[in-house]
Amino acid sequence: MIQYGDSILIMLEHEEAKYFSEVKRGSVLKTHYGNLIMDSLVGREFGEKIRLGLRDAFLIKPSMIDGIFSLKRSTQIVYPKDVAFILLYLDIKPGDVVYEAGTGTGVMTSAFSRAVCESGKVVSYEKRQDFLEKAQKNVRHLGHIERVTFVSGDVAECKESQKADAFFLDVPEPSASLESAVSILKKSGRICILCPTANQVQETVTILGTLGIIDIQVWEILARSYKANPERFRPEDRMVGHTTYLVFGIKVEGRKLNGKE
């Protein structure tokens, strides 16, 4: 049953139009097809059909992808095609301890908080307080904020004693934070570094090789959607091309960081 505070997706029948909104008391969703009084949705069930102006529409419970593309962004988002790959390659599972730097819009924070379940923990570092505040709001909608510890500051200042099963690094200059990130990882822990440019990849791979990281892999994920029309089935006219390079690796013993194993 739909209640105040729920997020909802209004999807028009026979149309590509979608509207993502929150059910707030006294609010009105304004669209090209007509206005919708959000109070009227309270008590209805997800999946029900309603009228939006002269059109039929459905009340859909939004997915995380719907939420990601509806975010008010302070930074570039991590795209769903990359999110899924990162979760699998870092092998995030219930009970894991996951660190990230920086938080950005909170997309990966939300994904990690879902994957670690109640027994896990996410620690997220972000230097900019304004980014952190916006990310916290996003995580409340997309993930499980009670599983996340937000830290305002540089990951180099981390004093946590608990080691991480996985580390996700998404900062403007990743090379400056690599040693700190690797030092937080458990042995056999996995790391992912997001690098928008090729020169960052080259620098990152070089540094990882000196920090006890093996099985270094570099990936670029491309995805293309198709028109779901049986009579005119073909690729969509536009696609998201390059978003980022993903650098992965696994920590092992045998190399020293600042004189420590």
TrEMBL record:
One of its GO terms (biological process) is tRNA methylation. GO terms for molecular function: tRNA (adenine(58)-N1)-methyltransferase activity. Keywords: Methyltransferase, S-adenosyl-L-methionine, Transferase, tRNA processing. The keyword tRNA processing applies. Transmembrane segments: none annotated. SUPFAM superfamilies: S-adenosyl-L-methionine-dependent methyltransferases. InterPro entries: SAM-dependent_MTases_sf, TRM61_C, tRNA_MeTrfase_Gcd14. S-adenosyl-L-methionine binds at E126, D154, D170. Catalyzes the S-adenosyl-L-methionine-dependent formation of N(1)-methyladenine at position 58 (m1A58) in tRNA. PANTHER family: TRNA (ADENINE(58)-N(1))-METHYLTRANSFERASE, TRNA (ADENINE(58)-N(1))-METHYLTRANSFERASE, MITOCHONDRIAL. This is tRNA (adenine(58)-N(1))-methyltransferase TrmI. The lineage of its organism: Bacteria, Thermotogati, Thermotogota, Thermotogae, Kosmotogales.
